[in-house]
Amino acid sequence: APFPLAIDPAARPARSVPADLAARLRAALPEGVVLTEEADRTAYLVEERSLYRGEAPIVLRPRSTEEVATAVRLCTEAGVAIVPQGGNTGLVGGTVSAAHEVLLSLGRMNRIEEVDPLNFTMTVQSGCVLADIQSAAEAADRLFPLSLGAQGSCQIGGNLASNAGGINVLRYGNARELTLGLEVVLADGRVWNGLRALHKDNTGYALKHLFIGSEGTLGIITRAVLKLFPRLTDRQVALCALNDPSDALTLLSMARGRAGEAVTAFELISSFALEIVERHTGGQTPFAGRHPLYALVELAGSDRDGTLRPAMESLLESAFEAGVVADAVIAESLDQAGNLWRLREGIPETQKKAGGSIKHDISVPVSRVPDFLRRAGEAVETAMPGVRICAFGHLGDGNIHYNLTQPEGMEKTAFLAQWERMNAVVHDIVAGLSGSISAEHGIGLLKAGELLRYKDPVEMDLMRRLRDALDPAHLLNPGKMMGRGGG
Ligand code: FAD
After folding, report:
1. In the structure, which protein residues have their CB atom closer than 6 angstroms to any atom of ligand 1?
2. 409 alpha carbon to ligand 1 midpoint, in Å?
3. pTM exceeding the 0.90 threshold for the entire prediction
4. Using CA atoms, how far apart are residues 487 and 480, in angstroms rounded to an integer?
5. Which atom of ligand 1 is nearest to the CA of 109?
6. How confident is the model at residue 484 (pLDDT cuts 50, 70, 90)?
7. End-to-end distance of the chain based on CA atoms, in angstroms?
């Protein structure tokens, strides 16, 4: 019989894991699922940015939905909270566990169950690595367009739980738009089977959208039906040197006006961001001098008529004539296109080598990005003279990774101690422009305080009520997103 959803809301999680929980889990689950040895757990307790360290004394590695459901039921009965973990590449501390919590890794649920090229869908377990899903789609002459720097290790369950974005959102939307159906293990151990492969389904509330982007606080995603698209057979990539953010906006508008849906990516790269990539990777920009800003533009399509190359050339010609672009280069081969993309993709890694970073993942209406860059640039320089701005990201989505690198000569610890103060400087400007303090990375532990500061109180109240309805004892990833106070 299913465990009842109505858990006493007053029940608080046990402050330590009961001594017999590991034994009870071992008795109910196959060998190899329950890890308690420190050496076996360590890999699951580290965190991408090294800002936190997990402490869960038990790590679970189920292989099936039934095993997840059993694990959740036993933990819930014991009043022990569960932290779901996918590829552990999240950037906001969403998978960090406490000593009284159990960590549940989905990594062994990595089966691609079905590719249906005629329906343009794929059914997968949630622990599938994103790159494997992309490859399986390609093998069926289809495209799964979600694409981001961590795709070699992040998992589709983590992508969905954090509603990941990446470089193709402009054309295909983020993870939410790429999902048709979900299967979810609820807080009481019941399984919600919403695994429908329907392109149209108006039969009540779109429950899947509650779980997508919920960061493991409403349920554990175990399987998904994903949308596929026609495979792209032509790809044209150009790097453009620009003098001003408003030129980037004009170029984006020209590109979309002329090439429409063929604009798959439009990435902005600040001068400092490109400089550190060149310095630390040996990559090189194709331009003689420095420019204040660069845009990486990609046109891609499924037609084989070779229309995209002339479209890119004519776009750049017009942009030159209009004085919008100072210099530009179009990749002549796939290798060259890869080299241009590496300049963009190398930024997150090389930032670590350039010193400490205080990071912001913001979005504003696309038309207000130049305004944001100008205002934020002035404000951070006033707040911390000499701070170096490493801004890059998805201009087409109004999403800028506005990262601050420590001023030369400042101690890293002294710089990082300013994290909250500098967050407030940047996020106040974002709020003033009706933007978001987390465009694609989510809230996790890192931004729970910031969410409380900026989110509308009515919206917070609705979120808490949904949480109370689906996880009354707050045993799913507590403390993430709504902070300790909000469960
Ligand atoms: P995890 O980090 O394991 O988990 C993320 C959150 O989801 C946690 O709260 C976790 O509890 C929850 N969760 C995980 N699996 C499940 C599940 N099955 N059910 C319920 N909850 C679950 N993000 C972007 O959006 N766009 C980018 O362009 C981008 N680029 C990146 C580049 C690099 C180099 C790195 C390191 C990260 C980048 N990220 C980006 C952030 C990160 O990779 C994504 O957020 C990714 O979607 C997280 O997937 P994951 O499997 O690693 O999830």
Report:
1. 48, 83-91, 94-95, 106, 126, 148-150, 154-155, 157-159, 161-162, 164-166, 215-216, 220-221, 348, 440-441, 444, 477, 480
2. 33
3. yes
4. 8
5. 18
6. low
7. 28
Specify the ligand 1 atom closest to the Cα of 348: 34
CA of 321 to the centre of ligand 1 (A): 42
The Å distance, Cα 316 to ligand 1 centre, comes to: 35
Q: Which domains does the chain have, with CATH numbers?
A: 21-108 (3.30.43.10), 112-230 (3.30.465.10), 234-348 (3.30.70.2190), 355-441 (3.30.70.2740)
- Interface predicted TM-score (ipTM) of this complex, two decimals: 0.99
Average pLDDT over residues 367-376: 97
